[in-house]
From TrEMBL:
Pathway: Metabolic intermediate biosynthesis; chorismate biosynthesis; chorismate from D-erythrose 4-phosphate and phosphoenolpyruvate: step 4/7
Protein name: Shikimate dehydrogenase (NADP(+))
Classification via CDD domains: NAD_bind_Shikimate_DH
Subunit structure: Homodimer.
Keyword NADP on entry: yes
Catalyses which reaction(s): shikimate + NADP(+) = 3-dehydroshikimate + NADPH + H(+)
Length: 262
């Protein structure tokens, strides 16, 4: 019996238990997946080991700490310094980041992307920038403040007000703007310069149509929210949890059913 969870704060909104428990049921596996609200990350390692989880998904704001406590780290988590999946085996912690490959799978139908602009400079932006760069995409980062841009010195970057290039194939909102209010990630004036030239847009928020998402639709862009990214990162994490191969379509079908996407 696998004891699994998604760990974060807040966490009650997470759809991961629905996805994973339905996949466990339909694939005939033995396991249970729950939510766990962690107050702070000071004792993340000790707390997770004490509870006895076999593996966990990690969400905000603990992804960087999850990376730090791991004994072994995959390529993506090593390059971005954060992990969203931890597996506990033989008294060792193995860290993975499935957000990046989940994102790439979600935008698979976005063809011929040569240039991408990421709005925001948080941990999600780091992951998306890295996997896009690995695919040969020219990535540019823009942010409200300069402090976080120091983590993107291997990419072209600027403050919003200093942005001079407005010609990108893909515009990504990696910020939380619009999650609990009607804010845009940057000024509407900047977006009115960017969106007419773009072909695609991606909004990482998945539980509502944000102002950014609605504005992209007004410009007739092909736009997706983060629901498929959530789905695919979950599929890849599930494979790690149960050490599965050649079951991806079954896992995906079960998780889609749980999310009511079919």
């Amino acid at each position: 019996m696998k004891f699994l969870a998604v760990v974060g704060n807040p966490i009650m909104h997470s759809k991961s238990p629905r996805m994973h428990n339905n996949a466990i049921k339909l694939l005939g596996l033995k396991g249970i997946y729950t939510r766990y609200c962690l107050k702070n990350d000071l004792f993340l390692k000790e707390e997770l080991l004490k509870i006895g989880f076999d593996a966990v998904n990690i969400t905000a704001p603990f992804k960087e700490k999850a990376y730090e406590i791991a004994d072994f780290k995959d390529e993506v988590s090593t390059h971005v310094g954060s992990a969203n999946t931890l597996c506990f085996k033989n008294n060792q912690i193995y860290a993975y980041n499935t957000d990046g490959i989940g994102f790439l799978q979600a935008i698979k139908e976005f063809k011929n992307i040569k240039k991408a602009l990421i709005l925001g400079a948080g941990g999600t932006a780091l992951v998306l920038a890295y996997v896009l760069k690995q695919k040969g995409v020219d990535v540019y980062i823009t942010n409200r403040s300069a402090k976080r841009l120091q983590y993107f010195n291997t990419y072209k970057n600027s403050l919003y007000e200093d942005l001079k290039d407005f010609d990108f194939d893909l515009i990504i909102n990696s910020t939380s703007a619009g999650l609990v209010n009607d804010d845009l990630p940057c000024s509407e004036e900047i977006l009115h310069k960017l969106l007419p030239n773009a072909k695609f847009a991606f909004e990482v928020i998945y539980n509502k149509e944000t102002p950014f998402y609605k504005l992209c639709k007004k410009y007739n862009l092909k736009v997706k929210n983060g629901l498929e990214m959530l789905l695919w990162q979950g599929v890849f994490a599930f494979e790690l949890f149960f050490n599965l191969k050649n079951q991806r379509e079954k896992i995906k079908k079960a998780m889609i059913q749980a999310l009511n996407l079919d």
